[in-house]
Amino acid sequence: MLRSIPKFVLSAALIGSGCATHTDRLEEIRSAYHSGNLDEAKAKIDKAIDGHSREADVLKLDRATVLLTEGQPKEAEALFREVRDRFEALEGKDLAEGALAMLTDDQQLAYAGEDYEKVLIRLMLSLSNLMQDGSDAGAYALQVNQKQQQIIETSKAKDGNGKNLKESYKYVPAGAYLHAVLREETHTNYDDAQRAFEQVAQWQPDFAPVKQDLERVKTGHHSQAGNGVVYVFTFVGRGPRKVEKMEIVTTAALLIADRIISALGKQSLPPTIAPIKVPVVPRPINSIERLAIYADGKPAGHTSTITDIGLMASEQSAATLPDTLARAVVRRVVKKGVIYGVKEAIHTDQNQISSLALNAAGVLWEATESADTRCWGLLPDKIQVLRIELPAGEHQLALQPLHVNGSGTPMAPAELVKVSVENGRNTYVLANFPENRLTGKIVTNRPGK
User: Fold this and answer.
1) Most buried by CB count within 10 Å: which residue of 35, 283, 357, 395?
2) pLDDT tens for residues 306-317?
């Protein structure tokens, strides 16, 4: 009976079939990374890149994250830049891929990055460059805002009333913050720094330190004579990832629609049995809240959130869900239309067995769909920062993770790093605490001896 089913229907079903998704592969990578086994994480990433070419770009983002975490900012910057350029080239949809995706699922599309990923690549480029000589960090920081503005202004994702679904996107304040920090260090561009800090205050009103930042730059005062400034940036918590979700309401609507069409048309449609599957980004839940920082054994303050990546990713996923659902529904309609057309062509209204066989093939075709869960899986939940003014010279910093219970309870012993502070200059430190301990090493552009 399979001979009566066109080969392209079976081929499309087989292309879309498969048990493991990107989420499955990512779980092992995240487990190794968050536990601090960076060599194992890199090995699993490289294996996945070799075996799954359509996931290569997001896996390279994960690899760049590992490189930055283990203290190789130059190599990380190069890889981040490679993927940034690749995403730029892929932003124009390929028609052939789009047609194939209608016959299978969105995993057949070249992955051009989620909007938050495109923006955060620029931020990671800036941080990676800061951990070197910082010569390009300012340009990367400006690209953070520019990219997000471009994404919003050029969006074609609309709701039922024609409203831009991306107008609700919140801007990433960390880009403006880095721009302000770098302009302030020039000791001459305080107006630029003030405007950037005002953006931070607007976009992240909960970031309390910005009030002091604005007061300082308004007076044209980077630091006291003989002092420099240390900026401690921390990646805090396990970040967002995509998971597959069944959309029951949309599935029920399709079921009603295909029953109506079957009743009115000469041919029956394959019954809607397989649910609509879409990717969603659940809000990460973490036990770590922030870090306490000590300088030379004395309390220097706590880190504050400058960008909540987990919240941003989940909100953007929810904002664009109607567009994702619309694409999934259109794909189901296309598949049902193909089956209906085949039935018309071979007159299955006169052959009930062939009609049932085509219905079975249609059900299989729809059942093989999977949500596109490709994503940058090693992002942190939050990026936090603390500014510390210290006398020029060598200092020892201690970074201690604090529990999310609000009491400021330490979760683990402090991690130590020596830094060199220069008169009137900035020193940058970057540390990653996805859980209650440091992953990788503490990276700085001015290490102490």
Assistant:
1) 395
2) 999 999 999 999
